[in-house]
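Structure (tokenized):
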């Protein structure tokens, strides 16, 4: 599995060097991802975590900066018993500004350790 927190920080640095066409493409992908997030949320509310996780992977491919998608994926991982993956996603969501994820985040609580997998 990729390391979402490192990817989030890299994306934020790269965003400042984009040309206008790239920016427009990114905005289109963001809108597509946000539209698909509602369906993934419905799956999670029904307890269908495996399918929600599959959808969330596709959503994050479209928009790797969608904080709510990291939060929901972290929730689905948590409910599936994948606590390490849940913690990584909650950290990524908090770094991207998801206020709800902050109470779950190891970075916000000071529990993150250097070199942690």
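Design, position by position:
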């Amino acid at each position: 599995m990729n390391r979402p927190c490192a990817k989030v920080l890299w994306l934020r640095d790269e965003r400042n060097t984009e040309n206008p066409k790239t920016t427009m493409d990114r905005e289109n992908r963001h809108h597509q991802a946000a539209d698909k997030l509602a369906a993934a949320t419905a799956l999670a509310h029904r307890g269908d975590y495996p399918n929600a996780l599959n959808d969330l992977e596709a959503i994050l491919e479209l928009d790797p900066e969608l904080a709510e998608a990291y939060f929901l994926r972290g929730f689905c991982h948590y409910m599936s018993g994948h606590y390490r993956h849940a913690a990584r996603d909650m950290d990524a969501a908090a770094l991207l500004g998801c206020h709800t994820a902050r109470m779950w985040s190891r970075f916000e609580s000071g529990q993150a350790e250097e070199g942690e997998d």
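Reviewer-requested clarification: The chain has a mean pLDDT of 80. The radius of gyration is 14 Å.
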